[in-house]
Please model this.
Amino acid sequence: MKILKKAASVALASALVFSLAACGNGGGDEGSSDADTFKIGGIGPTTGDNAIYGTAVENGIQLAVDEINEAGGINGYQIEYQFEDDQSDSEKSVNAYNTLKDWGMQMLVGTVTSTPCTAVVEETHADNMFQLTPSATAVESIQYDNAFRMCFSDPNQGVASADYISENGLATKVAVIYNSSDTYSTGIYQRFVEEAQTKGLEVVAAEAFTADSKTDFSVQLQKAKDEGAELVFLPIYYQEASLILAQADKMGFAPEWFGCDGMDGLLALEGFDASLAEGLMFLTPFTANAEDEATQTFVADYEAAFDETPNQFAADAYDCLYVIKEAAEKAELTPDMSIPDMCDAMKTAMTEITIDGLTGKQITWGEDGEPSKQPTVVVVKEGEYQVLQAE
Model:
């Protein structure tokens, strides 16, 4: 309290100051002496076009929170968890962040998509709050030292895609269809083209569309066909990809198809003919039909809890909570620490831990917030995703 009325007695002033200190600041920067839980927030789209991503992240976090709490929590303290819908909109995402701050959030898992995450990271940076995004891939989404990511960045996906196509002899003439109005798509596209040139791939067509022209792809497909593209690279989301595959089939164009993690969700898209995706390859850190014990346990538990099969976004989010647990225990965090003190300790701890998760083994992080792990490529075969082994 900055001003006390002159008429107030010294005793009353002292009592008031003591009362305010004991109450803490409702989750603000100073922490609370009686805090006995870690408050972790999440942000992502649970309604709108990208709801499949945000809902999966919300559920993946919830499953991990329940497991961690049942096993004793983090450093002996339970986790409280709250998730806010941002409809993949930057303004709504910042509003969601402020709602979570009012609730008392101490660390953020999010946001799910890149453009909102880039807006929110400005807020977490100003507050020096630890942020770990499961799936925002734009470089700018973690541009400050308080922010880390679980997934590959856009540039890394572009490089890994070009490398895989070249090293496995999938094609020599490649076309690209990308969304020039989307940060995710353009970021991958730019690095893909750069890496393709170094790997001896010929990009014979690079055809763009925008958010306002994402239903008719006949011009882009005809250009790729006319230029003799043996493979079409699609650094886009599955909704547009479903239309491209259907329209290519109608015009008799059947190249190889290769995408990135935004392709996950294609086979679950209502009304989509899965046979059109037969042979489609894409980068993803997780497949639900992998045979390792950790994946199968996760899938079984997720299906029991939410009555649906988890996608990579659920797995990334699940891993995020176990990363937070590992780093928080390394940093010896307690809930009564201030948000900036928690964040500073987590920044160091994140560069000192190694994680075996659902989305990668022996994962580490640099000071730039980027993970180091091996990419996985899957192929659609008989209506399922199957892991491809590099030749």
Q: What stands out?
A: The chain has two domains: 37-151+292-372, 155-284. The longest strand covers residues 37-44.
